[in-house]
Amino acid sequence: MAIAEVPRFVRADGPDKVTGSGRYAADISLTGQLVAKFRYAGVSHARITRLDISAAAAMPGVFAVITADDVPDVMYSPVVPDRRLFANDVVRFEGELVAAVAAIDAATAQAAVDAIVVEFEALPIVDDLEAAMADGSPLVHEDWESYAVTGDTVQRPNVASFSSIEKGDVEAAMATADHVVTSRYVADACHALPIEPRAVVAQWEGEKVTIWTSSQVPFDARNGVCETLQMPASRVRVVVPHLGGGFGGKCGFHFEAHVAALARATRRPVKLVFSRQEEMVAPDRRREGMVVDITSGVKADGTLVARTGWIAIDNGAYTADAAFFPQLAAMHVAGPYAMAAVKIESSLVYTNHQPSGSVRAPTAPQACWALESHTDELAAVVGMDPVEFRRHNIVDEGVEGAAGQVYGEIGLRRCLDAAVEASAYGDDLPDNEAVGVAVSWWPSFPGPSGAYIKIDSDGSGMIITGAQECGTGSVMTLRMLAAKELGMEPEDFQLVYQDTSAAPYDTGATGSQTLLNNGRAVIEGAREVAAQLRNVAADHLEAAPDDIVLVAGQAHVSGSPDRSVPIAELAAIAAEGEMLIGKGSGTPPQYPTVSAMCVGDQGLAGWAGPQFACHAVHVRLDRETGVVRVLDVSAAHDSGTIVNPIGAHGQVEGGITMGIGQALTEGTQYGEDAKQRNTGLLEYKLQTAADAPTIRTQFIEIPDPNAGPYGAKGLAEAPNVPTAAAIANGVAKLVGAPVRQLPMTAERVWTTSMEVDR
Amino acid sequence: MSFTIATTVDDALAALADGARPIAGGTDLVVGARHGKAPLPDALVAIDRIEELADVQLDHDGVRVGALVTHADLVTDPVIVGSYTAIADASALVGSPSTRHVGTVGGNVMNGSPAMDTGAPLTVLGARAQLRSAGGSRTVSLDDLWTGPGRTSAAADELLVGLHLPAAQARCGSAYVRLEYRRAMEIAVVGAAAGVTLADDGTIASAAVALAAVAPTILAVVGANDSLVGLTPAVAGPVIAELASDVAAPISDLRASDRYRRHCIGVMAKRAVDAAARRAAGESIAVPVNRSIGIGAA
């Protein structure tokens, strides 16, 4: 189904990145540039009683020290605007900014940061999700009721956003069950951890500022600067050089305004480069901790009849983009299963932890891990094979899901069959090995997006797009789409991207949406250019424009390949008059409506372009130590049509590897002071290349008419969803019980096995 | 700040006498400074180009391992792999390929981390540290060298020039096993090394066991020999597991609880004795043991 005959490697950014000639934000240095450093709260919850910057500001080589007093008093964040650029009274997590310094060099800037005097009056720490929701808990935001919350968002004390999914009479349905199983699963927070710590460089020219930043969402970054510094979009340009990974950690608006404010105050370019520790503590992006309670009723024949769920999500101190997390988590605790009655309540709970934000498939890996572990418990209680149990209960074409969406042709059943078939499931394995299986789903995110296309006088193409490349290769895939429309090769196109002043809007490298939305825009723009080319060719070849075919770099008359002219020649002609310039945005796919009742609806109970997946993971357990090793992963994904198979395989392999880390080794550890204890790569253990298992990926390609180009859905996040769940089910088979905490560290696995033995 | 490059031991010793600190691979010193553990010293003398300290040499009563021999070299050195295999097991696990290519055994020993990988193997193999200063030289046992976490008994002007290993005996074998959560860029959660000599009847004729990351320094298991001599390796396993867990004094930290460490050090000790005995019996177990059996095996 791929649009090229043979899979092609079309990474325009590949050679620069591999050879080191590519430039990242930290590589940018400007004349007269100063170094920025931040003063962080360093405590998790306290009232500022004294803030004295005078000694720091007086130090030689220090050009500016700014605080809340030096920027507009603006509350920002989408949906729940609950934070400011700098703390102005209360600090609510250790990484909150109190002041920022610009100095001649890093050592001077650090000395000035250290010379800032901040005194605090300690406030009670809120770090337990259930205690935070209890009556009488200290509040993280005393004046939460005054915040200008938008949409249908529902708030409660210490709850930034509450959502529910409710359908049918749960009590009555549960009463018909032969078995009722209740489970609790608890997931630790973890990090996106792009290998490139972020950097921001800001330079003013007159009243305009240009900001180079490592952002996945340049337009969000620009809009954040506009909002917090109260400037029109026309005066702010955000440029992203090559981006060294994101995984969601660089979504949202972060420090662009702070650096711009420093640059304005000093009348010099200012550059901020984060350390690894800062990257792990300061951004309002990390994968949220979660407590999940699930109760399900099943008939003796394995039919799922009802489900209730209670979810508490660690929002951290501020809400970032997380207002939709409760609803999305609820959808994942419902899961891709049919059931007549469901009631899931889900709360985004304020704590004095680092704020949570969209990391690759937010809420989904943890919620899927809880649900799919629970699903194996359900299968066990009715004595069914876990795969058979899933076949019996999953959604399929014409079936209504938990939230009331009725699905068209979807590939979940085929994914389940394909992944299990490709694995060692059911084989006779050594007694320390097992295969665990999990199914999952994930929405596609339709949205507005734009691109320009032009062909220059020499016949070379240019795609000028608002889309952002964060390493997935999706922007690179745009070249394939334009080339196909214009009868050219992907390599004939250069890209101008990641520049808010050059290209029309795009949401950015977030929500698996680049190909889905910007692909549509590029195709539309390319078609406009194709029409222009046909007109020029029609004049040249003395034929009707509709009879002109663009193929293999030539325009020829349909049925007469000999009557042809190179596109480059037409481009030269056009360059003298009506130029070859196209634009596109197109109409985004529509979100379906659903029948469930949703309190605190954030628009995510009905999914356009729903993606489905199954992972079957072969694990080995070292029984004496609890160390789990992933031997191989069989993955099957329905992400609609696969446009760029090489890129798609890379997405799945990366998502699985990230999922293994989340399953086994990656988890934030907190002290009693609510501060993170493992903020370096020695103690926060990512998976390494040496740990990567064999990964076998199959795509179940069912074109989705309400999705992206050629029926493609998103793909970047879905592979990250079911891996931890599948590993958990393999481990549970070997241990004899599920490990109820994520990550399932060796010690937790060993402790669980000790409890089973006892 | 000053930085000088020594090409001879005497150059290096002169610099040390003037207050400089030595740097070879820099895998502890530089990384530690970047993490704020300790600032870089004001004066550094680079010793990585002193060729006379960079080889493994047989001498009349054993083997001398130069302080600048890298982990990558130790993993492939035929003498080390053949007769002092536990050292190769350990060096093969250090950091990443790039760490192993610049990191040296001397740096590992003098960094004095209780979690160092080469420490337990060197201890069970009876290594002694050769220290030199402008004023003279001396040889000390490793037990006397390591005085606490990150601390040694070497004076500031003394340079570790090498480690001396006694001649290997017939029917001897050694192994190092560690608990690790991933297969690269890892540090021992706990580790154990064993050196075993077998009698003709296959029972243990002599044994030494040392433990990593369960005490302020590498911990030689006193009584290991007395407890294991005369036992078959199969019987010896549970015995050393219990003994190792008993003598360990682990802490709780980000990597593990003391309880889990105490359990796992017994498992590691048992596996180390088992692998050492199998090697002593002539079985070939590829380096590192961690990748051949048990944890992390492919």
**Quick one: biggest sheet of chain B?**
5 strands, antiparallel
Radius of gyration of chain A: 27 Å
The order of strands across the largest sheet of chain B is 4-5-10-6-7
Shape category of chain B? globular
Structural class of chain A: alpha+beta
* End-to-end Cα distance of chain A: 54 Å
Q: How many alpha or pi helices of chain B?
A: 13
Walk me through the structure.
The complex is a heterodimer of chains A (758) and B (298). Chain A has 758 residues and is of the alpha+beta class. Helices cover 27% and strands 25% of the residues of chain A. A seven-stranded mixed β-sheet of chain A has the order 3-5-1-13-10-11-12, sandwiched between helices. In chain A, a hairpin with a 2-residue loop joins strand 10 (199-205) and strand 11. The model of chain A has no long low-confidence stretch (mean pLDDT 96). Chain B is α+β, with helices and mostly antiparallel strands and 298 residues long. Helix content of chain B is 35%, strand content 24%. Chain B has 13 helices and 14 strands. Chain B has helices at residues 9-17, 29-34, 71-76, 78-83, 85-91, 97-102, 105-111, 119-124, 142-145, 224-228, 233-247, 258-280, 289-292; strands at 2-5, 21-23, 43-46, 56-59, 62-66, 128-133, 136-141, 146-148, 151-152, 159-166, 172-178, 191-198, 204-212, 219-220. In chain B, the strands form four sheets. Chain B has a five-stranded antiparallel β-sheet with strand order 4-5-10-6-7. At the A-B interface, helix 18 of A face helix 12 of B.
